[in-house]
Amino acid sequence: MSPAPLKSDEMDAAFSALANEQRRRILDILKKEPGCNVNRVCEFFDIGRIAVMKHLAVLEGANLVISEKVGRERQLWFNPVPIHMIYDRWTTEFSDYWAGRLARMKYRLENAPVPLARAKGGARG
Predict the structure, then answer these.
(1) Residue 114: what pLDDT?
(2) What Cα–Cα distance (Å) separates residue 8 from each residue in 5, 35, 62?
(3) What is the predicted pLDDT for the residue at 45?
(4) 85 vs 108: CA distance, rounded Å
(5) 20 to 30 Å CA-CA from 118: which of 25, 40, 52, 101?
(6) DSSP string spanning 80-93?
(7) In angstroms, rounded to a whole number, what is the distance separating the alpha carbons of residues 10 and 4?
(8) What is the value of pTM for the model shown?
(9) Contact between residue 42 and residue 49 where contact means Cβ atoms under 8 Å apart
(10) How far apart are CA 118 and CA 67, in angstroms?
(11) 2 secondary structure, DSSP code
């Protein structure tokens, strides 16, 4: 069962969050280091902790970041589901079409008889 498609406001939040370069960098960091804390994310930026926290809040609002409080710190994870749902919305039919074309091409090429002249090194006269 596939998840329900994103609502319009959820999609707006995801696009708005992804429109900022620093937020995309934060997602890259969380993809590379899942479960890292806010201090670790701050090490990658020349901006203050408060600014990073504001970017994280936007990413969490767009459901692109999941955070969990563990003791005194927050662990952060990249959530690719909204991006995947956006991707599926516009590409599924094209992916199906091209996957079908490539599969048919593969079967034709595998079943095609190999010409004898080429199979034996070519017919050079």
Answers:
(1) 60
(2) 9, 29, 12
(3) 95
(4) 33
(5) 101
(6) -HHHHHHHHHHHHH
(7) 12
(8) 0.71
(9) yes
(10) 61
(11) P
Rounded distance, CA 16 to CA 71, Å? Answer: 31
Q: Kindly report the CA angle at 12 between 8 and 15, in degrees rounded to 5?
A: 135
What is the 3-state secondary structure of 90-121?
HHHHHHHHHHHHHHHHHHHHHHCCCCHHHHCC
Rounded to whole angstroms, the Cα distance separating 84 from 86 reads 5
**How many residues make up the chain in this entry?**
125
* Cα 85 from Cα 90, distance rounded (Å): 9
Percent of residues in the chain assigned helix, strand, coil, to nearest 5: 60, 10, 30
Tens digit of pLDDT for each residue in 11-64?
Answer: 899 999 999 999 999 999 999 999 999 999 999 999 999 999 999 999 999 999
In this structure, what token pair is assigned to residue 80? 């690719």
Residue showing tokens 């969990």: 68
Dump pLDDT digits (tens) for 69-83.
999 899 999 999 999
* 8 Å CB contact between 51 and 66: no
Tokens of 116: 């004898």
Q: How many CB atoms lie within 10 A of CB 90?
A: 8
